């Protein structure tokens, strides 16, 4: 089993798409299909057989959440990198022998225990520093045709990023801290990320000369770590809620799932 960190520090600012719904409160607490968004994520992790201790960073636990694996709730540290690093430090306090940890965003409420277990089983077939999940555009649009996600066009595949990944528990940013911070800040814009990694990488990406494997190799080399891309068969892993229309899409999906369970 692997520990998990739920990153829940996002607070929509005035002028951003979800601000009218959140009104300055954490996005993780937005109601969706009858529950706070983060509760759906916690319940998937709670039911996953491959997940042990859970650390939540950035938002309080909803009063309605019935979870036994959550060992610590840490206040928002102000930015994503600080939230991730603080969560990893806490995981190592709780489980000093932990070798990898699952990082999960609180805004992918459609994930299930099956998807979590698949990711752990798949990643633990090798021993890398970082496993980054991507979803093929065809898979995403088959499940969520109106999601309007952003995609990266590579030589061999067109993908969007997933929001459930696996990293080595002892991974440190070292002298690359500012680069890590800037890359995470540009996580919604692959071209900006490529430019941060070097003009040559940006040019190769624009010309669609990079395969997925080559792109991972370049990023890993620049960041001085080992890495592997995980092509997930589950669109839900990449269906993060950033805009009202995406909340509506995911809510409809979750309500349909509840309806089918009751009927079954």
Please sum up the structure shown.
This protein has 264 residues and is of the alpha/beta class.
Q: How would you describe this protein?
A:
With 264 residues, the protein is an alpha/beta fold. The protein is built from 10 helices and 11 strands. It has helices at residues 19-22, 37-47, 80-94, 113-123, 137-143, 177-185, 190-197, 199-206, 212-223, 244-263; strands spanning 2-7, 31-32, 35-36, 51-57, 70-74, 100-105, 130-136, 152-153, 158-161, 164-168, 227-231. Helix 7 (190-197) crosses helix 8 (199-206). It is globular, with a radius of gyration of 18 Å.
Key words describing this protein structure:
single chain; 264 residues; alpha/beta; Spore Coat Polysaccharide Biosynthesis Protein SpsA, Chain A; nine-stranded mixed beta sheet; two-stranded antiparallel ribbon; 11 strands
């Amino acid at each position: 089993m692997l520990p998990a960190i739920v990153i829940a520090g996002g607070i929509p600012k005035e002028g951003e798409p979800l601000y009218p719904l959140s009104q300055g409160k954490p996005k993780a607490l937005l109601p969706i299909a009858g529950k706070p968004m983060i509760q759906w994520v916690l319940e998937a992790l709670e039911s996953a057989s491959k997940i042990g201790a859970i650390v939540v960073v950035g938002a309080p636990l909803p009063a309605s959440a019935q979870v036994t694996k959550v060992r610590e709730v840490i206040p928002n540290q102000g930015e994503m990198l600080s939230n991730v690093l603080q969560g990893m430090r806490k995981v190592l306090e709780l489980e000093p022998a932990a070798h990898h940890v699952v990082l999960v965003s609180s805004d992918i409420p459609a994930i299930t225990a099956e998807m979590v277990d698949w990711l752990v089983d798949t990643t633990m077939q090798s021993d890398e520093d970082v496993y980054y999940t991507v979803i093929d555009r065809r898979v995403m649009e088959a499940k969520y045709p109106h999601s309007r996600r952003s995609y990266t066009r590579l030589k061999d595949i067109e993908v969007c990023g997933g929001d459930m990944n696996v990293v080595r528990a002892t991974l440190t940013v070292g002298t690359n801290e500012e680069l890590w911070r800037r890359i995470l800040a540009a996580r919604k814009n692959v071209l900006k990320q490529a430019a941060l990694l070097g003009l040559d990488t940006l040019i190769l990406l624009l010309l669609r000369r990079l395969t997925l494997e080559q792109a991972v190799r370049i990023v890993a080399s620049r960041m001085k770590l080992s890495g592997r891309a995980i092509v997930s068969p589950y669109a839900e892993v990449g269906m993060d809620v950033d805009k009202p229309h995406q909340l509506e899409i995911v809510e409809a999906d979750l309500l349909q799932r509840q309806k089918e369970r009751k009927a079954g």
